[in-house]
Amino acid sequence: QVQLVESGGGLVQAGDSLRVSCVASGRTFSPSAMGWFRQAPGKEREFVASIGWSDGSTYYGRSVKGRFTISRDNAKTMVYLQMNSLKGEDTAVYYCAAAPSTTHTFDYWGQGTQVTVSS
After folding, report:
1. Whole-angstrom distance, CA of residue 114 vs CA of residue 38
2. Please, which residues bridge with residue 75 across strands?
3. Interstrand relation of 108-109 and 2-7 (parallel, antiparallel or unpaired)
4. How far apart are CA 20 and CA 7, in angstroms?
5. What's the pLDDT score for residue 29?
6. What pLDDT is recorded for position 27?
7. What angle do CA 103, 105, 108 make, to 5 degrees?
8. Which residue among 50, 64, 70, 75 has its CA within the 20 to 30 Å range from the CA of 5?
9. Count of Cβ atoms closer than 10 Å to residue 9 Cβ
10. What is the mean pLDDT of each run of 10 residues along the chain (119 residues)?
11. At 27, is the secondary structure helix, strand, or coil?
């Protein structure tokens, strides 16, 4: 069983930066990709960013492109999301997700970490 645990959320002011982290643990796990999604109150879950585990290719949601950066540490099976120039609309629960190489779909999810941006 693969477990994903997020950390690093919190309360910040608009314009600040914040980094959230996610570690995958459990059985030996080599994902094809890991990513971040978010869900604000009353809204559907939204894609934020993803990173290919072997080649490091990155993809971003339109609303965060240019402000957020996703990175990975293959040895630690960790993924990070550096969030800069935060806005009130970035307030959400941020979820880490992992796509196993057998399915290439985000089958594993963390419990989420709250990010609140006060404006």
Report:
1. 9
2. none
3. unpaired
4. 6
5. 78
6. 74
7. 100
8. 64
9. 18
10. 94 98 86 96 97 96 98 94 98 97 92 97
11. coil
